[in-house]
Amino acid sequence: MVKRIIGRGLLAGAVAGLLAFAFARIFAEPQIDKAIAYESGRDAAQEALDKAAGLPPDMGGGPDLFSRTVQADVGLGVGMVFFGMAMGALFAVAYLLCLGRTGRLRARTLSVLVAGGGLLGFYVVPFLKYPANPPAIGHAETIQQRGSLYLVMVLCSVVFLAGAVWLGQRLQTRFGNWNATLLGAAAYVVAIGIVMALLPSLGDLSDNVRLYGHHATETPLPLTDPRGHIVYPGFPADVLFGFRLFSVLAQLVLWGAIGLVFAPMAQRLLQPAPAGARPKEASPGAGSAPDPVTT
Amino acid sequence: MSSLSASAATHGATTPEAGAPAIPVVVPHARAVLLLVSTAVIALAVYYFIGVDQGAVSVFGNDMHVHEFVHDARHFLGFPCH
Ligand SMILES: [Zn+2]
């Protein structure tokens, strides 16, 4: 059972990754291209300013290891599909842990609920504190801190979510399904809210304050010359909004597909009796030849 | 179904919906746990390579091939980059 569930989780994840890739290729890439164009233009403007000020030219920017076409087609595809499969595998693990512990929930309903938990825990809640950013947003000096902070957010959000489910189950006998669910959700909101309040905003990181002054985020502000005239605009708001909106929608596609592709497969595997007839396959008898649990 | 579903009955109302057989508890079960842990570890490694490696930390030193290759996915999946 374990192997078959994990296999189906991987399959659902691969399908979901492909769909999310198609979505990203169509909707995200134009935004990413605009962001990169903004970045190049800004770099050129900065260079002109530096030259005028008599500063040595900045040799920043790594070599282009892959062309933009490769990044946008193959790289994005490989990234999305492998990410989908990794999430599908973790989804299957969570699903297996839930099996038999969720009362009267049907196998396919559980699939959708676990996928919803994945969406919330791995993406939406971390996004609330540290939203996705297109290229051109993000200072090289802070990548270490930003990386760690993001992972702390993901870790807390996933662990707390599991804890909230566990808590809700513990409270269910005393308060009933509805109230226990609400109490679990409230505990989650409070716990993650405390973490979000404690973690710093990206603009507050010491390197950012030192180098760029005090701002809320790392989103580039207008570039000004020494007299205060704007020589290059701030990051276009519409591009940022579009990128973030599509990023959220792609995760909806990804987790929605995982839950919905996995649901009928799990239903067939775990509760294979639409007419109510006892199927032969479902009663392997303890200890019979193929291990019913791990196969 | 027999021995496995026994523990499911401890969780309140477990009468399955009409026609649907009860779902067995699969975990904990020694071999199942091993499979779950190894699956989770591999999945998290993939998550790490797509989202984190050669950014904040790097297992291949200064090489940037993985980072640059999955670059667009990394941004779009919400990971910090650049
Ligand atoms: Zn980047």
Automatic annotation (TrEMBL), chain A:
Domain of life (superkingdom): Bacteria
Residue segments, region Disordered: 274-295
Keywords: Membrane, Transmembrane, Transmembrane helix
Parts of the chain that traverse the membrane: 74-98, 110-128, 148-168, 180-202, 241-263
InterPro entries: CbtA_put
Record's protein name: Probable cobalt transporter subunit (CbtA)
Organism name: Actinacidiphila rubida
From TrEMBL, chain B:
Transmembrane segment boundaries: 32-50
Organism: Actinacidiphila rubida
Protein name (record): Probable cobalt transporter subunit (CbtB)
InterPro entries: CbtB_put
Keyword field: Membrane, Transmembrane, Transmembrane helix
